[in-house]
Amino acid sequence: MPLDPLDVKWAAFGFSVSECDGNDVGQLIQALESMQAKTGAPQVLIAHTIKGKGVSFIEARPEWHHRVPKGDEINAALEELNHGE
User: Fold this and answer.
1) Which residues pair with 20 in a beta bridge?
2) Residue 7, SS3?
3) Three-class SS of residue 21?
4) For the whole model, what pTM was predicted?
5) What are the residue boundaries of the structural domains of the chain, listed by start?
6) The pLDDT of residue 84 is above 70
7) For residue 9, how many C-alpha atoms fall within 13 Å in the half-sphere facing its CB?
């Protein structure tokens, strides 16, 4: 169900809107810290994310929204995530 443009909708309700790459921890921290300095309006952070980011067989695949990895899938996912560090 399309909700875009979310930023425009939040702004229409008087919110100060910030956005970042929600899969990037550094960007999340930076966005949250910059929001602390803002006053005068309610705030919302739109963190753009990709479900399963970093695991090739899970990333951006809708069936994994409700599925849980099992057995060898867990090991493969951990291997990919640890290899990316």
Assistant:
1) 47
2) helix
3) strand
4) 0.77
5) 1-49, 51-85
6) no
7) 7
Is residue 35 a contact partner of residue 10, using CB atoms and an 8 Å limit?
Answer: no
CA distance 10 to 46: 10
Residue 58: Cβ-neighbour burial (10 angstroms; 0-12, 13-18, 19+): buried
Query: What gap in Å lies between CA 70 and CA 56, rounded to an integer?
Result: 15
At 27, list the tokens.
């960007």
Q: Which of 82, 29, 77 is nearest to 57 (CA)?
A: 77
Question: Could you read off the pLDDT of 41-71 as tens digits, one per residue?
Answer: 999 999 999 999 999 999 989 999 899 999 9
Taking the C-alpha atoms of 20, 8, 5 and 42 in order, what is their torsion angle to the nearest 10 degrees? 50
**CB neighbours of 23 closer than 8 A, spacing ≥ 6?**
48, 49, 50, 53, 54
Whole-number Å distance between alpha carbons of 60 and 20: 18
**pLDDT digit string (tens) for 13-40?**
999 999 999 999 999 999 999 999 888 9
